[in-house]
Specification:
- By secondary structure, the chain is α/β, with parallel strands linked by helices.
- The strands form 3 sheets. It has a 4-stranded mixed beta sheet.
- It is elongated.
- The model has no long low-confidence stretch (mean pLDDT 89).
Length: 188
């Protein structure tokens, strides 16, 4: 993880809610610079910080926004979408059976197999590495002699965001640092 003084290619813009908190930490809420400028002109956001880089049209010159804040608050108490990615995030990108950190080898496992009536829901799906998923097969964890680190459960949006703070992106621009909080040490 590196904090950069110079913006990375593409000039991403950090998007904050009206309370100046990021809309999400994982993935980090950013827009391409074009989307940020469009929303500035539509009066949907306030510019909080700019890059030194400018863009030009025939009639206007404008610095690229590096941080914007929405003018209207977006409630964060909605239920998170059930997606493979959010299951992996809930489980910390680790296998719940062996604890291996195998991001490139994670799968979606039905605790109670579908062949036995197990559904595809927050309460029955966990992140598992391929070897553990194959070992478990069409059995329950108990039948396979395996134990999950924690039982699957529906997370709240706040729990997913807290979990996301454990996984900072590969880069952060210096102008974003006053608005972000990470649960890990960052290299300056």
């Amino acid at each position: 993880m590196q904090v950069l003084d110079k913006a990375p290619q593409g000039w991403p813009c950090l998007v904050l809610n009206a309370d100046y908190q990021p809309l999400s930490y994982w993935p980090l809420s950013t827009w391409p610079w074009q989307e940020a400028i469009k929303n500035v002109f539509l009066d949907r956001v306030d510019i909080v910080s700019n890059y030194a880089e400018t863009v030009h049209s025939p009639s206007i010159e404008m610095q690229l926004p590096s941080v914007v804040a929405l003018r209207e608050y977006v409630a964060q108490n909605r239920a998170p979408a059930f997606t493979r990615y959010n299951v992996w995030l809930r489980d910390g990108f680790r296998c719940v059976y062996c604890g291996a950190d195998r991001v490139d080898n994670l799968t979606f496992d039905h605790v109670i197999p579908r062949s036995r009536g197990g559904g595809t829901s927050w309460e029955n799906i966990v992140a598992a590495c391929s070897p553990c998923n194959l070992k478990k097969g069409g059995r329950t964890p108990r039948e396979a002699g395996m134990t999950a680190v924690r039982p699957p459960a529906r997370p709240t949006m706040h729990q997913l965001q807290a979990q996301g703070r454990r996984f900072p992106p590969k880069y952060l621009h210096q102008s974003w640092m006053d608005y972000l909080y990470w649960d890990v040490e960052l290299d300056a």
